[in-house]
Amino acid sequence: MLKHIWHHPRKENCGEDCRNFCCTKIEHFGVTAGDLTIFADVNLHVHCGELTALIGPNGAGKSTLLRAILGEVRHTGQLHYVDAKGKHTGAPIIGYVPQYLRFDVSTPTSVKDIFAACLTSAPVWLFNRRRLAPRIKESLARVKAEHLMERRLGALSGGELQRVLLALALDPLPDLLLLDEPVSGVDQSGLKLFYELVGELRAKEDMAIILISHDLDMVKNYADKVVLLNKKVVAAGTPEVVLQSEATQKLLGLPSIERGQAQ
Amino acid sequence: MIEFTFEIDMVYRVMDSLLPFAWLGHAFMKNAFLAVLFITPLFGLLSTMVVSNRMAFFADSLGHGAFTGIALGALVGIFTPRTSLIIFSLAFAFLITYIKNKSRASTDTVIGVFSSTAIALGLMLMSRGGNFNKFSSYLIGDILSITPDELGALALVFVVVLITWGIIFNKLLLLSINSSWARSRGVNVFAVESFFAALVAVVVAVSIQWVGILIINSLLVLPAAAARNITGNVRQYHALSVIIAMVSGFSGLILAYYLNMAVGATIVAVAALCFFVTLLLKPQFVK
Question: Are β-strands A76-82 and A208-212 bridged in parallel, bridged antiparallel, or unpaired?
């Protein structure tokens, strides 16, 4: 909380240069698959305590950009992480919530098992990890899912699974949180809860969040910054500016913009 | 060697006083009992992740690879047959894992290609000069012919697998949920997969002679397949899988003794029975 108050007054005179408070700089990112360029020369500055929404049409390279930041796909360009004291601290701790987790729903694995496997190297099949239980409970409470601790993974609903994955991404607490919004399997109320949780996190934990979103209403309500991606950064700025820009209207179609304005 | 014989005599005496059953009277039954005691928990443990990682076909191909390993071992004769078998099985497992990760062909196809190549090579080498009968015992296995010396090797493998299983398990569990997600959590997917493949390869190599090529795969699938029908977390899954493997092992051994049938096949039949029982019980456990 203190950290939050401490660095925010400086925000105005910082601009795009983030020498004075913590941020992640993505410089000249590009990914190609064979001859095909997925995206090229993407530059992003993501500040702590800020939610950056990534929007764009299908195939714009949004998910690939997240996977490049994670280091999962080969890419050009560099990632710099600078902490609040202006020191280069190297690699940030990155939390990641995939769009959809495809897994065998018959797997006899509980939510607690997955947490224990992520948090320790003491084999889950042998130890009962009673000592971990409070920590797991706390993590799950953060996403309002503490009642799911003993539940089997395959028995979770789409929204519940998404929250459990979010809780997993938050322990250890990351510097940078990457979220790929679910497009299917989560109902509207589940999606709203997910956004509320993410909004709360941004304020409370002071972390930088990049969120791929398909719901422009939600972006309008929750994002601090919006980046329109289509093989490159087409537009970037505040939600008002980017969402009403011509480029967005052209790439994503008008209806959602009109709906946004009507509210 | 004399020391070891002395030790095994002691073990026999302990077994005589603890388990004074008629079927355990012969030394070969005592040896088989010990072999089952070492092998079946390993199959119970490994099968959990073989099933969760959808590697049943892979395990099957390892059996076929072992077949070639035996033939090559008999042919080349640089190492003892068991050593050459283990080396070949490890190389075979690494090769499949590597190609599977590199190639865009489906896993099924890659394994199918290797598996059929291995079995064809093995058959060619074994049938050379009309000596195939010499090798036919490998097909159904013969646990009753195991010697105290070989039991020592099994005990060693038992310890090694148990330790490795303690080290790599958590990463393997994440991998079994979703490999791309596991990678995003910092799991070195290829390394963990290779380790696991190596582990399965070693266990298959050291037990193939006693269990048999035709049925070794069933032991790597059935215990966990039965256990996952009625369990909801990893600890229950493991415990039940090991229990089913051991119970099938011992009851199969006893049944085979009294009914005078092949031990390996009887063990698998009992494990299959366990699977169908848990399948019937499933609606009551998993909601």
Answer: unpaired
